[in-house]
C-alpha cells in the first residue's frame, strides 16, 4: 500500500508539473491562432464598407473593412497661424463645434473641455480642436480674445476658423454633427452638443454628449484607452516619432 501511495503521489506531481509547464505555451498558441486581444477596444462610428478583399493575420484571411473617416482639413488658429486637423499620424484628436456669440452651449463645452486639456497638457499626442461655425464673425482676433481665459497656448488646444471651408458640409458629412444656420439673431446657429474622439487614422472612436453628466469623465478614460490601442497597433511608428 505504501509503494502504491508513493507511486500515485509521484504521478500526480509529474502531471501537475506538466500542466504548469505546458499550459502557458498552449494558451499562447490558442491566442495567436484566434488572433484575439484581451484588452478593450473602442467602437468605430459611421458607415462602413466591406470591399471584398482580405488581409492575413496570424495565418488567417481577415475581410478588409473601410470605415468612415474625417479627412485632414486646414484651418486658421486663434493666433493667425495655419493648423491642420489630423496632420500627424500618431496623434489623437478631440473635436467639437462652437461659436463665440453662443453664451450657453459653446461656453459650457469650452469650459468642460478645459478640464481635458489640462489633464493631457503634457501629452503631445492628444490634440484638441474647438471649431467655430460662425466663420464670418469669428476671425482669429475674436477667437484669441474668447480663448485667452483658457490659456490654450499652454496646451495642445486650438480654437480654429476658416471662411474658405464649407463648415456646415464638413460638420454633417465628416463629423456627423448638426450645424445649421437659423434666422434667429439671438441664436444664429444650431450646433451638435458632442465631443468627438478621433484616432490617428481619422476614424471617429467616441461621441460624448455634454448634456450627459458622465460623458466628460468617460472621454478622459477613453482617451487613455485609445492611447494604449495606438501604441499596441503602431509601436514602430510611435517609437520613430519620439
Automatic annotation (TrEMBL):
The keyword Transmembrane helix applies. Keywords: Membrane, Transmembrane, Transmembrane helix. The chain crosses the membrane at residues 12-31. Pfam families: SCO1-SenC (PF02630). The keyword Transferase does not apply. Belongs to the SCO1/2 family. This is BsSco. It comes from Sphingobacterium thalpophilum.
Amino acid at each position: 500500500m505504501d509503494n502504491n501511495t508513493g507511486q500515485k503521489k509521484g504521478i500526480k506531481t509529474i502531471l501537475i508539473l506538466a500542466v504548469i509547464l505546458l499550459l502557458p505555451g498552449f494558451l499562447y498558441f490558442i491566442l495567436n491562432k484566434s488572433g484575439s486581444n484581451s484588452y478593450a477596444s473602442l467602437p468605430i462610428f459611421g458607415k462602413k464598407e466591406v470591399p471584398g478583399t482580405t488581409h492575413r493575420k496570424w495565418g488567417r484571411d481577415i475581410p478588409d473593412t473601410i470605415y468612415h473617416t474625417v479627412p485632414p482639413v486646414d484651418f486658421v488658429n486663434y493666433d493667425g497661424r495655419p493648423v491642420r486637423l489630423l496632420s500627424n499620424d500618431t496623434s489623437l484628436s478631440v473635436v467639437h463645434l462652437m461659436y463665440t456669440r453662443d453664451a450657453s452651449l459653446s461656453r459650457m463645452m469650452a469650459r468642460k473641455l478645459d478640464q481635458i486639456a489640462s489633464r493631457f497638457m503634457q501629452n503631445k499626442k492628444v490634440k484638441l480642436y474647438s471649431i467655430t461655425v460662425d466663420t464670418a464673425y469669428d476671425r482669429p482676433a475674436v477667437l484669441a480674445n474668447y480663448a485667452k481665459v483658457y490659456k490654450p497656448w499652454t496646451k495642445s488646444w486650438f480654437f480654429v476658423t476658416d471662411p474658405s471651408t464649407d463648415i456646415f458640409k464638413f460638420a454633417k458629412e465628416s463629423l456627423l454633427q448638426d450645424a445649421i444656420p437659423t434666422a434667429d439673431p439671438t441664436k444664429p446657429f444650431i450646433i451638435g452638443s458632442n465631443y468627438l474622439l478621433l484616432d490617428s487614422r481619422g476614424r471617429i472612436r467616441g461621441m460624448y454628449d455634454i448634456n450627459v453628466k458622465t460623458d466628460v469623465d468617460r472621454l478622459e478614460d477613453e482617451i487613455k484607452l485609445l492611447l494604449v490601442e495606438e501604441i499596441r497597433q503602431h509601436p514602430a511608428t510611435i517609437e520613430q516619432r519620439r
